């Protein structure tokens, strides 16, 4: 399964089942989850911390480093999905509404 | 369109078109984008910064505050999609692989 | 008063009086304060988010931007001092002990 | 040496010597250092990520955990001192100016 064939709801279900099977719902408070997202974003940054922009642009060309970045990115995404689950936020609706607001703020040239 | 009917690839396209129309590709370096995700994660945390866990759990019951959190969460998601686009990482494959590793690390009881 | 003449304890007192005068001790829980530091670190990063390393190195040469960075840096420092106050951690002792450990980890060439 | 007897300038010197002895000045770009501070703030948050506020308030009573938090807090402080060094910002002046602005924004009751 790839991004082409997978709905956002299906990804949310993957995270939801993982949390339910471990009885982690009581820990999945929005405050804790927002911290968790920021912690994982910090771990993602570690891969680029001391690199020039040119070096950072080349990370994806190295299969091992691309894989490692994908793991950190997955952790970030998992917490976004967990927050959406815990707060019953539809990410597609929220993202599209926000992009319309962004388009007003930053008009295309 | 909701999370039920929308593929991850379709959300990636929304962000990709937005970036392309503004000629922002040169700014969308993975180093800059990882910083951007952490910045937005910080803005998301602001909504829960001084709340108790009980208060944080009630934020979703307030339509205005739920909407505001949804906006910040969308900004975070947009940067994850942008990193996936810039580095050609399939998020579904990466997330599923990571959840399998997490399941080994944290077995279901 | 400058860094030359000011002790760390004096800076801690500035923050402690500010918190005490507003009866904010109940909010100054280490969990909240660690979130606050990460939020302010995000605001600091905003000043460098889209800059090349060369451009970032020149920010200090612009008095207005240097001042703005100094404000964000102060917010970060204030939360570090607040955590030290809330948890009764001596920053000088902790920093010196950590630098000795770092020196073992990264020997000088 | 403790916070009572140590000036901010002396702590800045500890970090400056460490950087100079390793020839790390070229890496100590403000963009990289602001990322580093956010990364370390994330590691600090890990100590409180899943705790209730009551549990977080008790961390300082456990010598081992207090020590561990002190190490993370030192890493955060070291990067603030490094940014002050790299950008020649006087932290005492900046903090006092910011606290005066904060006092206007949040008057004592």
UniProtKB/TrEMBL annotation, chains A, B, C, D:
CDD domains per UniProt: NTP-PPase_RS21-C6_like (cd11537)
InterPro entries: dCTP_Pyrophosphatase (IPR052555), DCTPP (IPR025984)
Species: Novipirellula herctigrandis
Protein name, per record: MazG nucleotide pyrophosphohydrolase domain protein
Gene Ontology MF: a single term: nucleoside triphosphate diphosphatase activity
Keyword Hydrolase: yes
GO biological process, one term: nucleoside triphosphate catabolic process
Hydrolase listed as a keyword: yes
